[in-house]
Structure formats: C-alpha cells, structure tokens
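Good day; I would like, with your permission, to put a structural problem before you. What I wish to show you is a protein chain and, alongside it, a tokenised description of its three-dimensional fold. Here, with my thanks, is the record as I have it:
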Amino acid sequence: MKNTSTNFEFKALSTACPKSGLPWSLPAIIQRIGCKEIQPDHSFYVFALIVALACCTFAGRAFAQPQDNWYAWHTYGNTGITSLNCMNTSPGTAATNGGISSPYGIAVGPDGRIFVADHSYGLIQCYSSNGAFMFSITNGFNGGQNFSQPLGMITDKSGNLYVADNGNNCVFEFGSNGTFVQEIGGVSGTSPGQLSGVRDVAVAANGQIYIVENGNSRVSQFNPNGTFNQILINSGSLGSQLSSPVSIAISDAGEILVTQDYMSYQSEVTEGGGFRMLKAFNTNAGTNFLFQIDLSDAHGFNDGCFGGTAYEGPCCVRVDSSGLVHVISGACGSKYDCGNDGENPYPIIWRVFNLSGTQLQYNTLGFGYESTAEIFWPCQAIGPDGTMFFVDQPTGQIQQYLYAKREQDPVPKNAPSMPEVLSVQQRTNSTIIDIYYHVTDLDDSNTFAGILIFTNGTQSLSDCFQPQTFVEGTGTNINAVVPTGQTLHLAWNAGMDWSTTNTANFVVGIIAKDLRQGGLLDFHFLDLPADHGLPALEISATPLIQSDFSQVWWWLLATNDPGISLSNGVIHGVGGAYNGLALCNGDNNTTTNGQAYIYAKMNVRQATTTEVAWASEGPNVGITNQWAPTIAVAGRPKAVNEYGFDTGNWGTNAWWIVPQ
C-alpha cells in the first residue's frame, strides 16, 4: 500500500453575477489533491480534486485605486467648446440666464448641484447635476449685502453652501436653495475672532467651520452658529505653523489639509524655499502636525518683465469621499504675467495624494493662457460620485473630469461556496467508493453541489462522465441542494458506471455554486453613456474566450442540464432548436451553436463590432487609450481605457457580450 500526493492544473470554474460589481472571473480554488492506491482486483486509482464554482456580490463603497481614475469630459468656457445647456461661460451670455463671465470658486453639493462664483457678475450661479441653470444668489442678499471677491466655496453634508469672501473678510452661509443663513466673521483685524484675507473655508462633519486667513497666516475655527471658537493653527515659520495659507480641506476622519503660497512674483521666491507647501494636521489629536510637502514647480521661459524661471505653488486643496487629497497648483494670488508677450503660459498641475502624504498622480490641466493683470485663482470641487470640476478665472473656463471606476472593489462581503474533499476510499473487495466532502460558506446555509469524473487524470470531454449510481441513500448529497458546514457522504458504485475490466485513474471533481446568485460566468458589465451618435450601452468589461465556455459546459454536465448530452467526447444539443447539433467538440472548443446555447442561458447576446469599437475608443472618438491594470486576476484585464473596458490584444477568438 502506498500513500502519495500530487498536484495538477485544473482551469478555473466560476459562475456569473451580471452587474455584481466583481470585475473579473474568480480563479479556481484548489484545496487538496489526495492520492490513494485502490485494490488491484479492480485497478482503480482515485484522485480527489476540489474546484469552487462561486458567485458573489460586493456591498458598500468601492475603495479608490490610483490608476488614472479621472478623464476629461467637457470644457465650458471662452474656448469655443460646446456648453452644456445654460452653463455657458461666454461673456455675452447674461447672468440672469445662468451665464458665467469670470468664474472664481466652485462647489458641488451632496445632490450633485453645482455652485459657481462669478467675479464679474458679482453673484453665484447654481446648476443641476446635468448642467441646467437653476437659480442665482445675487448681490443685495440679507437686506443689501454684496459679494466682494468670493474665492473658495464648499458645501456641508446637508447641502448648505459656505462662501469665503476675500473682500468682506467673512464667510457667507446659504441654504441649498440659495437662501441666506448667516455671516461668519466680517470684522477685519488681527485679534481672535477678527479675520484678514479670507481665502477658503472647510466644514467638518460635526459642523465646525474652519477659515483660512491669508492676511493673518492662520486658520480660525468657528462654531456652527457662527461664533468664534479658537485660532486653530497659528502663523510662523515652523512646520506646524503657517505662512500665507490659501486653501483648506478637512477629511471625514478629521485630518486638516492646508496649502500655503508665498503670494509674490517669481523673483522673490525659489523652488524648495519652504513656502509653497501642503501641510497636514490631525484635529482629532489636538491639531498635531502630521507632515508637509514642498509643491513648488519651476517652469523656465523668457518672461518680458522678470525673465528666467517662474515658480508655481499649490492653490486649492480638496478631499474626496474616499480620502484622496487633490491639490491644484499654479501662480495663485499673483498676476498671471505682466503682459501678453507670447511666451509659454503657466500650466496648472493637479496632484493626488493619500492621507499619509504619498503622491499617487501628477497631471497637467489644459488651463494657463496668458492674460494681463488678472488674479490667477484656479479652484476645484469634487462631486459625491467622484466627478471633478476645475475653474480658472483668467481664462473663464470650467473643466469637468468624470470618475472612471476600474478594479477598485474591496473584498466581497458575501462569501463564495468553498467545497473540499475530505477523503476518498475504495472499500475492500468492492467497487464502492466512499467520498466525504463538505462545503464552507460563511454567510449561507445551503449550496448546490455537483460531481464530475475524469478518467485520464486531465480535464477533457473525451474522458468525462457524471457518476449516476449512488447507494445507501447518499444520492441526496450530490446534484442537489445540500447544507453547508456539514460533512457529506457519497457512496458511489463505480463498478456500475465504469466497467470493472477497465483500468483508469479517476479524478473526482466536486463543484459548488452559491444558491443566492444566478448566471454562469462571472463578468462585470460596464455602463457607457450615450455618445458617438449611439445610445447608452451596457457591455462586458472583458471578453469571453474558449476556456470560459468550457467552464460553463463542466457546470451544465455536472448539474444534469436536460438540453445537452455527452457522447464520444462531444456535447450535442437535445431537443429544441439545438437538437443533434454539436455544441462543444473533443478539443473543448465551443462551436458557434454552442455559444448561442450558452448566450441564451445567460440572457445575453454577442456585442456587435460597432459596440466593441465604441467601448474601445472610450470618450475620445478615434482614440484607443490603454493603461496597465492595477488589479488583474488570471490575466484579466490585459489593459484598460477610461471606461475600464479591456483594450488588450485578445485576438480573433474573443467575444464581448451585452445583456439582452
């Protein structure tokens, strides 16, 4: 008697949950392969192979991954690019119609409505999430108060709007419908509670209000009712102090991020001089200083006034709902240039950090046209769905970046069914094989289990059959709904299903599928917006290939699908439109009829060439972008574009699908 163990490859078997959020097929789960010599009078060698066939869903918000997650969608402004509804920033469009002449600050509410401060018109415009003009907050509010250089804006969790007004040295609060609520500050000076050079505002989850004072180089904290609380971060040259702060943001966890800039011409500051910083503080630990990052950028050009090199620094900082920190840099607070001298414009840099200060992305925005004697103040806002908006006052532009969700899902909450063969034993002087197995599922009490036998030790239709003869009442433990977390016994009379005169190495495959989920293959479907002259499209993120179809056949065979039969290594249709037609041959290649049979069971169809081309191009017609995936499972995806569509080279034998 010998006792050995071995390993061999078995292709992944998996099921599908259309639109489940799972990006790519689950790999096979091979738990244990045991080998035991069978009595020589029957010459059986039995191998136990365990394959999990599982389907699961994802719950909660996806975690962000730093992988080109935003892409340019629309530009509104003086560049001739088509505007969205009334959101037209051409100077000739009247403010009463929702037009914008000189955008300064921007904010997005929890319902997606967009607020834009207009410097020239002296008002704030409100648009719906799709860009349709809703209303204006005009001068003369609260019985005659007026805006004077509104800069940074933010909304709280309830949708109330807070506007940092530089000229009035205060923060104005408005309801989500534009009604005036209160004025915070408004008294100029250096004493506690007085403000100077108000540039930006942040609101914590508990309603506390934080105001950046550029003139006093500090952050003052006010209570939700507008009363002064404390000077939270003071001025000074230390790392834990501020010098010329310009913007502020606060995370859901309480971290405060502040950007500071020297606010002077490039001849008065050098790169790395310690002024152009992003600084982080932990308000939950007594405003402890966390870190600082030098964000100065040197850009060389022959300037007509100062010559040499121009230095840029951080302007606006915001934190999104997943905890990523977004900073845009430019010559904020300074004049753009002394004149239209035809030299290169200042670019605007968009950086993304995590809350530990690690930079994840560095992008250049398409702003930065030269202008004369204009305040250069780029601002940004982040919508609840991750959409980014950037505004630039000198060029009168608003840029919108959509958030592309790709490979970002956390570990699934719903656990898959995990089968495991515990033991396989042939009874002495008998053709009865005792198989003991169980299925683990952390959050489901039942599963469906099936069994397949391969007689040559490899996965091949030519040597595959399903055992039929179970004795001693154990047949209820297979090809049926079975309980999870219990040891299940199969007494298989192998001699009835396989001639005792034959010799074979049996591979026993136990397959289990979670009953809560449907489908046959695990594919994530993408929702693409109407574009390219085509309607909205739902399409699989990655294609089907021949091995995927094979996985379906194993499951259908193991679960006694009545529409197919296996003979001489070929799967044929039984009854109906597929009666007698070859669906999968002995080389495990699925025929065209076989694909149609599986599509019908999955309630999908094959995507057209036009649909695949559209999805490949992404939002830019005629351009197919590719990025290396952050997460890939079993080689999927090979590459991704802005939509998260797999643009890898799959060759001709790959088929994308769309729901029927």
